Hints:
The protein is α/β, with parallel strands linked by helices. It has one domain: Spore Coat Polysaccharide Biosynthesis Protein SpsA, Chain A (Alpha-Beta Complex). The chain contains 11 helices and 9 strands. The protein has helices at residues 31-42, 62-67, 87-96, 115-124, 176-182, 195-205, 236-247, 251-273, 275-293, 299-307, 312-321, and strands spanning 21-27, 49-55, 74-78, 101-104, 110-111, 130-140, 148-153, 172-175, 210-220. Strands 1, 2, 3, 4, 5, 6, 7, 8 and 9 form a 9-stranded mixed β-sheet that branches. It is globular.
Amino acid sequence: MDGHEDGGEDSGSFLKTTPRVSVVIATWNRSEVLKHAIRSVLASTFTDWEMIVVGDACTDDTETCVASFGDPRIRFVNLPQNSGGQSRPNNHGITLASGDYVAFLNHDDFYLPDHLTACVAELDRGEADLVWTAAAVAHASPRAAHSLTFALEGVPPAAGYSPFAFYSASTWMFRRPLADSVGPWQDAASLYVTPSQAWLFRAWRSGARLRFLSRVGVVVVWSGVRPDSYAIRKSRDHELLARWMREDADFPARMLEESAINAAQTAIATRHHAPGGAIARLLARPIYKLLIALDIHPSSLGMFIRHGRKGGFIRHHRRFTGIEQPTR
Length: 328
């Protein structure tokens, strides 16, 4: 989809049979977190998958990291030129995908063990082209040093898709032909919103059947709120999460309980302590409807106000995370 030829050697052999699911992971020089994402797929209750890890011209030990798992379902391809974003690696991963369904996993996120199983079961019913789950976002805890708290992400205001929520690509699974009909992910520099949300918006506008699964399937660890997350080659948060998921049988229930309480507190604060926000949204509704009718993602308005010209968000993200700095 992006015109790239394979830019590296496969670190695993090709499967002889077609898998049900192709998991695509775009990555760049973060093997210290990538290993946890891969392990979360290996811990899945669903096992009929292939994993395609696409490096955006990685220069660290990513290839060695991927090869260390020794699983023939996992392969690594390194693109010859760095694109500075997820779009090109994800597009390339889709061209290599042979599964009936495609799922993305950001290299700093974790699947919960039953995520793939639940998504496959829903798509197998034949009533949706794409499904997604909620995510539990891990934030630094304000109450305890070196700990985490959780909040829900990706829950729409109604049962179906709405462009006014953010849906991490790690939570999606879709039928392989949908990628061909919607087209490739666009480059971040050409958009006000993120490429993932622009792609999902286009899928919705195309008439694809998008369905939300009322469950939490992914733990998301945002690099964009962690200063120098790309420049510092370690992540205490990922190590902590990996240990909890591996050793603490009560962790999923505790995470969901805390996410629900935090969501309720946020809803109450928004409703009762920030009435001006509700008025502003009401006044802006005609503008949003016009943008949607013009096939413009409605969040483009807010992103333009906050970040200026197209690609402003990704430029801010790269500065904040240190992605353009040398690793140390």
